[in-house]
Design goal:
2 copies of one chain form a homodimer. With 160 residues, chain A is mainly alpha-helical. Chain A has a domain at 43-127: Arc Repressor Mutant, subunit A, CATH 1.10.10. Chain A has 7 helices and 3 strands; from the N terminus they run H-H-H-E-H-H-E-E-H-H. Chain A has a 3-stranded antiparallel β-sheet with strand order 1-3-2. Chain A is globular. The N and C termini of chain A lie far apart (56 Å). The structure holds a DNA duplex (23 and 23 nucleotides). Chains A, B: One of its GO terms (molecular function) is DNA-binding transcription factor activity. Chains A, B: Residues 17-149 form the HTH marR-type domain. Chains A, B: It holds the Pfam family MarR. Chains A, B: This is Transcriptional regulator HosA.
DNA sequence: TATTGTTATACTCTATAACTATA
DNA sequence: TATAGTTATAGAGTATAACAATA
């Protein structure tokens, strides 16, 4: 009997390891667990980092546009916006020209905290991509982007 | 006013698009939605394709090893195994040498159906990676693997 | 009539804690 | 005492359907 614990990868057959879809899923699980463990003191914001960045880049975005951008139903976004508003990250203001719309903005405090959070996200990203050459990173980014395009294009043509 | 709808990507700032962690998350969401829409008639198996492949490669694996391999708590695995057993994919047999353990196997029917499911997974993967050169694919796979290694290694050293 | 945001509701997925049976 | 599997339970996260306000 060997004292070495069997590694997880030993159980994963090669053809599964070669599947990009499997790797993506596995990475998302791992990265998310790690991210949540490492980043604290930012309330519930870390998991919505991407969304906060989109709001920062599109101040006053309507909730429905925001929901579409992150592939969520507009109703699913409501409690998220509410929580982040209570935590001081966001404010909603009714749109003057269309009073159905509520525009979403980062607060000054939210902007300030987002820049601090960004430092942590950078660290996380650096740890995750350690050992990858700039060239590999570039190819990786292109590949990930191409796949996202492929998947969204197919969604449009499918047109349920 | 232009008739063209604003694309999602127009809302995503470049620095966010360049984040591998953001892309991974986005891709996982898109790929999963697409996968579930396209693949039907396989019961609840498609979402557990990876797990079924691991069982196929490790016949008689103990539930706890399987849970570790897919980063789930052993208790979370129980209802999954149960469902797939009821659907005829799996059987559990008590281990002779350690009666606490229940060994998990694919049924003959499960093996047969898994090979059919695999055809669909291949199609999904091909659509997703369309336009990527063999070289890009190779670099992509290496990058994804390296990141998985980075994340699991860091988990071990953190050692909470 | 259609759209935006909201609410009520239900479903899925997951972890934690406690239990059981074995070791 | 520790481990494998199970159960009960609770907490996220999500979508669907229906509603109010507005266009």
């Amino acid at each position: 009997m060997f004292p070495l614990p069997e590694t997880d990868t030993a159980l994963i057959p090669q053809d599964l390891q070669d599947r990009v879809s499997f790797r993506i899923r596995q990475l998302q699980i791992l990265a998310y667990k790690r991210f949540e463990k490492v980043i604290t003191d930012f309330g519930s914001a870390p998991r919505y980092y991407g969304m906060l960045k989109i709001i920062a880049a599109n101040p006053g975005i309507a909730q429905i546009r925001l929901a579409e951008a992150i592939f969520l139903d507009r109703s699913s976004l409501v409690p998220i916006i509410e929580t982040l508003t209570h935590e001081g990250w966001l404010v909603r203001k009714p749109a003057a020209e269309d009073r159905r719309v509520r525009r979403v903005y980062l607060t000054d405090e939210g902007l300030r905290r987002l820049s601090l959070l960004e430092v942590e996200v950078n660290r996380h990203e650096a740890r995750m991509t350690k050992g990858l050459s700039p060239q590999s990173m570039a190819t990786l980014r292109e590949g990930l982007e191409q796949m996202a395009v492929n998947l969204t294009e197919q969604d449009q043509t499918t047109k349920d």
